[in-house]
Each structure stands twice: as structure tokens, then as C-alpha cells.
């Protein structure tokens, strides 16, 4: 018997069992996030499942079973003598809005992506892709993601990457955000820089409807949104119309990313700046083994970003298209001055500052 092989098999089996458990934890965290249970437990005194259910207006039997999973996973503590449960402060700091980042937000991706598994399996056999319409909550979760990665660093970290950009925004420039989703970054900029004008384009009617409603509520008269397919932007983009163009995690799932990038180059003023946030990765699979979220991001790619692009007859770049390919595409689009940055708080993304 090959002892080394047995040891390796045993270790791999342990890894798979751990992975099954952690996958279950992600589903439980998503339920806890969406029902408000995690937020309700943050900073609260120990209490029974009945008390927690009554306080949150939820069904006690479901709350009790969820608490069982949380205890089994080591996330929630309980006292068998009193029947009380509590969420340790150290855990609440990472799973609720009590801390600097709410990682429970990301657990929602598991359920969203699992919901289209049958569609993706069909695509493995037949090709093609899964249409954008099959992901009704994706924009909502992405907006929550953006609220934790982009928005907190937008004014102090991201915009200053381009020298002199905050000052230009203060004086007043014309700004376009392509693939803007729900447009939360645009709303923040429009409020901060009232003398600048802002436009957001996205393919999702749901996202744009939400953005328009929130913009109207906020009274932001310098911001407009438009539902727009950007696959022909290289032809339809208004020449030299914008001083700043941004894309936040918006290139890799486009049907025709090359056309969008060429259109962005076309629509930039001669002294314009294109600011890009996209996934930090390599364009070579073997180099992604050390990526702290590599496996998860490939899962997101197969089940959303790549397949959504292919559903439009697109290129299907995928989430993990990588820095090398990104630089090649930017150069092909006509950009000659390209800087690449990473921010200390955000290991998941690269930030490109591009000029003509």
C-alpha cells in the first residue's frame, strides 16, 4: 500500500468534509443576514430562541433550528442550563454592521448562484449562457458589496489615485459611469461635487429604476441614469464628451468588453481620465492558486459573470480575466498611460488609472 497516497487521500477527505460544513455555514449566514437575526443579536444580551423570535417577529421553530446551526459552526454561543444564545462581539464585528465590514453580505452569493445551477449545467452541455434576467437579487447584493469596498474609500483612496482629479471634480467636470448597477458611487460623487455633472449607464432596467428613484429622493439634479446596451459603444459613444469615465467591477461581464473600452477611449476628452476597478487576479490559472478568494471567484465567474456575457453572444471573459489581459485590452483600446494600484483595505481589486 502507498502510505503517502493514503495520507493524501485522508487529508483530502478531511478538506472536503470541512468544505461541506463551511458551505452550510454560508447558507446559514445568508439566512441570518436577510432575516435580520445577525443584526438583532449584535450587542444583545443572551436570550432564548423564543425571546429572539418574538423580538424579531420571526417563527420560533425556524429561529431555533438556525441557532442550532450557528452553535454547531462555532459562530453563536449558548448556555444549555438557561437555554440562552448570544453572538460574541468579535463575531458581530465581522458579520453585522457593528464593525468595519459585514462579511455576511458575501454569503448571499452562494444561494443566488446555486439558484441557476440547472441553467449552468445545461450550458456545459449546449453552450450559450444564462441571461441577466435569471439573477433578480444580484444587483442588490453587488450594491451592498460596493458599499463596503468602493464607497468607504471613494473620496480618500480611489479618486485621489488620479492626481488632481478631486480638484477637477470640485471645479466641475462631466462624468460617466459605465455598467453603473444601482449607481451608489455616482450618487455619492454627485452629492459631494454639485458643480460636476454625472451620467450612469447600465443594461439592467431594475438597477436603473432603483437608481432613478433614489436619485429623485436625494434631490440630485446633476445626476441622470439611462438603460443602455454598451456592446456597440465603440460606435455609439459621443466623442470627447466626458472628462472622467469610471467602471467599478463592470468590464469582465460585458458582452463585448473590447467595444466598451474602445468606446470609453472615444468618449474621453483629450485630457480625460478613465478610472477602472476590477478583480485582482492573474490571467494564468496556475498563478491564481495563491489568490485568497480564487476558488470562490471562479465559481462566481462560471455561474454569473462569464455566462451572462455568453448569453448575449459575448466574449465571456469571466471574473478572473486577470491583470495581464486587462492591460492588453486597455492598450488595444488606445490607452497609453496606464497606472495600476491596489488599496490596503481591498485585496480583491486592482485599480487602473488610464489616460490617452
Automatic annotation (TrEMBL):
Keywords: Methyltransferase, Transferase. The keyword Methyltransferase applies. GO terms for molecular function: methyltransferase activity. Residues 170-283 form the Methyltransferase domain. Residues 24-96 form the S-adenosylmethionine-dependent methyltransferase Rv2258c-like winged HTH domain. Pfam families: Methyltransf_31, WHD_Rv2258c. The keyword Methyltransferase applies. GO terms for biological process: methylation. It comes from the Bacteria. Signal peptide: none annotated. This is Class I SAM-dependent methyltransferase. It comes from Billgrantia montanilacus.
